[in-house]
């Protein structure tokens, strides 16, 4: 069943703030095996001009994907979330995410397409800090694979 | 923002130091915890096979996180990354053995852009197959 095209352009309310913690950044950097001290040592971060440790470039996905999840689980949109795979991912950074940030995400459905029975949804997540300044934009393409014939 | 590579010192075709990254089941469990992505296709073989996958697969975002390290290790300052995008073309299959899977990442400067930025194109493979497509980063140099 094709998804409702009228959802294209729909923007969802901003999420509650996510507070970025030093130890969460450390945990993420360790999980990807990245030993760059700018992720764990505030002095190393200051030496590069940052107020506190910064996060690896893809760290923010955890926050934007949670916000996108609320969109794709919107019962009115009717996407079969159990069949969803990640198609594309892109980020455009104004500045790196850093410890102490309180980030909100505003998600917008940019496009809905149907190809060979697959439903494709493009979601843009705008991430802002507590001062309302733009930090990063994340574009996520989700593909709900066609259901197999019973 | 303090990149250790100078814009004047790179040309189109300049190669970044290539890297390889090993991923095993323990890596995936650790990444699941750190990222909050607990989809069982990344840790439960029975579940993964039940949805038609050959075995447990790595998180696409894990592979994306490793691939950009070729760029961030090159410039030193990860905050120099202006844009980064990938297409997830093939899954990285992670067998339950001592070796796991290996992700190989090569990168080269594809274009010199305005404001001391360059576009780096990344080639990301595992087991001889390209796992990320359209894998590109724009990074600001010194």
Automatic annotation (TrEMBL), chain A:
GO biological process: fatty acid biosynthetic process
CDD domains referenced in this protein's UniProt entry, alphabetically: R_hydratase_like (cd03441)
Pfam families (alphabetical): FAS1_DH_region
InterPro entries in the cross-refs: FAS1-like_DH_region, HadA-like, HotDog_dom_sf, UPF0336/Enoyl-CoA_hydratase
Domain FAS1-like dehydratase: start-end pairs: 6-137
GO molecular function: (3R)-hydroxyacyl-[acyl-carrier-protein] dehydratase activity
Family of this protein: Belongs to the UPF0336 family.
Name the record gives this protein: UPF0336 protein AQJ64_39175
Species of the source: Streptomyces griseoruber
UniProtKB/TrEMBL annotation, chain B:
Limits of the MaoC-like domain: 14-119
A Pfam entry, by short name: MaoC_dehydratas
Taxonomy, superkingdom: Bacteria
Example of a GO MF term: fatty acid synthase activity
Membrane-spanning ranges: none
Listed Gene3D superfamilies: Hotdog Thioesterase
GO biological process, one term: fatty acid biosynthetic process
GO CC terms in record: fatty acid synthase complex
Family: Belongs to the enoyl-CoA hydratase/isomerase family.
Name of this chain's protein: Dehydratase
Species of origin: Streptomyces griseoruber
Organismal lineage: Bacteria, Bacillati, Actinomycetota, Actinomycetes, Kitasatosporales
């Amino acid at each position: 069943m094709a998804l409702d095209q009228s959802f294209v352009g729909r923007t969802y309310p901003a999420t509650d703030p996510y507070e970025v913690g030093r130890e969460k950044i450390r945990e993420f950097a360790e999980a990807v095996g990245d030993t760059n001290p700018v992720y764990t040592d505030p002095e190393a971060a200051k030496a590069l001009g940052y107020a506190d440790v910064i996060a690896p470039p893809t760290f923010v996905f955890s926050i934007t994907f949670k916000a996108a999840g609320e969109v794709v689980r919107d019962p009115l949109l009717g996407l079969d979330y159990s069949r969803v795979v990640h198609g594309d991912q892109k980020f455009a950074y104004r500045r790196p995410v850093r410890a102490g940030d309180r980030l909100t995400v505003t998600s917008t459905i940019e496009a809905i397409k149907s190809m060979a029975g697959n439903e494709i949804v493009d979601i843009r997540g705008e991430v802002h800090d507590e001062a309302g300044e733009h930090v990063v934009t994340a574009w996520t393409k989700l593909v709900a694979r066609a259901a197999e014939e019973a | 923002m303090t990149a250790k590579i100078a814009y004047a010192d790179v040309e189109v075709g300049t190669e970044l130091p290539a890297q390889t990254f090993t991923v095993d089941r323990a890596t995936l469990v650790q990444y699941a915890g750190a990222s909050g992505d607990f989809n069982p296709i990344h840790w439960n073989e029975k579940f993964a096979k039940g949805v038609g996958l050959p075995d447990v697969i790595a998180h696409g975002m894990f592979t994306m996180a490793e691939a950009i390290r070729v760029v961030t290790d090159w410039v030193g300052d990860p905050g120099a990354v202006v844009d980064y995008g990938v297409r997830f073309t093939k899954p990285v299959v992670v067998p339950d053995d001592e070796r796991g899977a290996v992700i190989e990442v090569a990168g080269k400067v594809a274009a010199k852009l305005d404001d001391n930025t360059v576009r780096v194109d990344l080639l990301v493979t595992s087991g001889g197959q390209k796992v990320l497509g359209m894998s590109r980063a724009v990074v600001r140099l010194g």
